[in-house]
UniProtKB/TrEMBL annotation:
Record key words, sorted: Cell membrane, Membrane, Transmembrane, Transmembrane helix, Transport
Similarity remark: Belongs to the binding-protein-dependent transport system permease family. CysTW subfamily.
Protein name, per record: ABC transporter permease
Transmembrane segments annotated in the record for this chain: 12-36, 75-96, 105-127, 147-178, 199-224, 256-281
């Protein structure tokens, strides 16, 4: 049976969707194209030659700011945040499977940072660590006066600030996973003589592994591009988003477009790798 003519509403909705896609991806396509400008290229079309000149400027640190240092600093921080988000989220999900007094209050406290403005969280953490600095200086005596500077840093206050953003998402995902988890698999493993640790490693973990990859994606990408929560807590070092913000006020070359292309490509590459891992895990589980 042949389909009849499509109604006009179909074409109207298709046109609206096409405009939405163009609005969503058009600027990114333009930025990627302009990042390959020649040495004399500007910030707008038409392009003046095609080259990798502006990428070389980024990595040679001949540009306005230290991009390569900020890139690897953000990358290492995002990896640490990703691992901690996955581990803590799994542990919390396992803990909340058991009923205990104050569970709901603790849950609300854990996810409260999602509704607090990010800049307020950053200011609060920065103030807290400055109080710690004063405490160290008052207790450290002459050693603190000579050697101590601050506790503010990428893997101290910066790490804590990023975890306040990534952990609530990881917790919500794991709570949803364990709410639908069938405990009969674990009971069967224990009936066969498996210990609690063996049950977790050989039964629970393989079942929830695809969801852990989703938590890892959230943890890495949210940390990778976080700006507001980093603004007051990084001390003397900057992350890549902070350097990008600095470039928007100082640079007048396609260097900023090259940086945007690199950061977007790195994010897409990681997401692609993790999704591939999830697909492989699912195929292996189906084959098993």
């Amino acid at each position: 049976m042949k389909d009849g003519p499509r109604p006009r509403s179909f074409y109207a909705l298709a046109a609206v969707f096409a405009l939405f896609v163009a609005f969503l991806w058009g600027p990114m396509v333009a930025i990627v194209a302009l990042s390959f400008q020649g040495p004399d290229g500007g910030l707008v079309f038409p392009m003046r030659g095609v080259s990798l000149h502006w990428f070389a400027v980024l990595w040679s640190n001949e540009g306005s700011v230290d991009i390569s240092g900020a890139f690897w600093r953000s990358f290492r921080l995002a990896l640490v945040v990703m691992v901690l988000t996955v581990v803590i989220s799994v542990m919390a999900g396992l803990a909340f499977r058991r009923r205990f007094p104050g569970a709901m209050v603790l849950l609300y406290i854990a996810i409260a940072s999602l509704i607090v403005p990010s800049i307020v969280v950053s200011l609060g953490i920065g103030l807290e660590f400055r109080l710690f600095d004063g405490l160290v200086q008052s207790l450290g005596g002459d050693w603190a006066q000579r050697n101590f500077v601050t506790l503010l840093g990428t893997f101290t206050s910066g790490l804590g600030a990023h975890l306040t953003w990534t952990l609530p998402f990881g917790l919500l995902i794991m709570f949803a996973v364990f709410n639908r988890f069938d405990p009969s698999y674990e009971e069967a493993a224990r009936d066969l003589g498996a210990s609690r640790w063996q049950t977790f490693v050989h039964v629970t973990l393989p079942i929830i592994a695809p969801f852990l990859i989703g938590v890892a994606v959230f943890g890495f990408t949210l940390s990778w591009d976080e700006l507001a929560r980093s603004s007051q807590v990084m001390g003397s070092t900057n992350t890549l988003p902070m350097q990008l913000a600095a470039l928007t006020t100082t640079v007048t070359t396609p260097e900023i477009y090259a940086l945007a292309t690199l950061t977007t490509g790195a994010s897409l590459l990681l997401v692609g790798v993790l999704l591939t891992c999830a697909f492989v895990l699912r195929r292996r589980r189906s084959a098993g």
